[in-house]
Amino acid sequence: MRGRLRALSIAPMMDRTDRHYRFMMRLITKHTLLYTEMIHVNAILRGDRKRFLEFHRSEHPIALQVGGDDPKGLSECAKIAEDWGYDEININVGCPSSRVQSGNFGVCLMLQPERVAEGVAAMRQACTIPVTVKHRIGVDEVDRYEDMARFVRIVAEAEPDRFTVHARKAWLQGLSPKENRNIPPLRYTDVHRLKSEFPEQHIEINGGIKTHEGIQTQLEHVDAVMIGRAAYDNPWLFADADLLYFSESHCSRSRIDVAEQMLDYIERELDRGTRMMSISRHMLQLFAGVPGGRKWRQILGTAAARSRADVATVRQFLKDNRFRFEQPA
Questions:
Q1: Residue from 95, 108, 127, 251 carrying the catalytic annotation
Q2: Which helix (H) or strand (E) holds 99?
């Protein structure tokens, strides 16, 4: 096993876990593993690498998630990821979108475990950072526990550093990617069984976990937990993560401190030509569950939608509501 593997991570999410969101989350939790959105190997090899791979130094530890099925391309991306300073590289074997089906990557690869093993072996040979796999418990009719166990057994021969298992199967036809995140039933016991039958493997569970109670229950059965949509809908959930899972001090900032630092960040990014809405959309749920949270979303959304970003208006709103909003973790 190469590198330090974390007990808690935030899932790679398309149109969610970009560098702006990750910057905000790093103000809340210092140790939770963060992921990029999934990036296809061809975009990295042939596209604008700065656009796809740039991240702030504060974002460590950070993993690059890639999609692809060509071992050579995957190995080149693994070397690039290490050169760019990523702490880990992960191959997506779970996305069920039509794009991945036409390109033969994502969850399609669960039907080709030998191909995944070839990719993992090539990636491990090309870099020294951890190489990990994120997959589903099954796909279409190939969804028995025995099918998943066979996939893991074959891929494990290439010695990946972790298997992250989304505890739902995926349907390649009939369900949208969003429906595939919600409709197939969760089968946590299959993932627990996987850990018990493959104790030497580092097993992380993902899917439907939304609370610290849920995280702690899962950690009784597996090595790590990955949180997806709950991390976006309630980012302040992670204010206690460092204390609970990494034996470090909890977040010493309040929500309003994080909001103010994000406004500083917005002003810097505006000077680089970034649109305010590209950043502020990730901040809408910062005060989720707090009195005044709806008004915060209205003020922030209105300011970001104006032709000229109005950071001053948002700052004044925070100042006027400091007593109301101040809630240390």
A1: 95
A2: helix 98-103
- Please tell me the predicted confidence (pLDDT) of residue 73: 97
| Segment (H or E) for 9 | strand 8-10
3-state secondary structure of 86: coil
Name the pairing type of β-strands 162-170 and 203-206. Answer: parallel
* Lookup result for tokens 């950690």: 219
Look at residue 95 in the predicted model and tell me its pLDDT.
Answer: 84
Residues in contact with 37: Cβ distance below 8 Å, sequence separation at least 6, in sequence order: 12, 13, 14, 15, 16, 17, 18, 65
**What is the chain's mean pLDDT, rounded?**
92
Q: What's the whole-number mean pLDDT along residues 127-133?
A: 98
Give the bridge partners for 39, in sequence order.
Answer: 66
Structure confidence by residue, pLDDT tens digits, 203-212: 999 999 999 9
Q: What are the structure tokens assigned to 255, written together?
A: 């929500």
Integer angstrom CA distances of residue 162 from 101, 171, 179, 202: 24, 24, 26, 5
What does the alpha-carbon distance between residue 44 and residue 304 come to, in Å, rounded to a whole number? 30
Q: Which two tokens stand for residue 304?
A: 């970001």
Per-residue pLDDT band for 329 (boundaries 50, 70, 90) equals very low
DSSP sequence for 219-275: TTTSSEEEE-HHHHH-GGGGGGHHHHHHSSPPP-SBHHHHHHHHHHHHHHHHHTT--
Q: Is pLDDT above 60 for 328?
A: no
In this structure, what token pair is assigned to residue 29?
A: 């939790």
Class of residue 266 by CB neighbours under 10 A (exposed 0-12, middle 13-18, buried 19+): buried
95 counts as catalytic: yes
What is the per-residue pLDDT across 28-42, written as a single tens digit (0 to 9) for each?
999 999 999 999 999
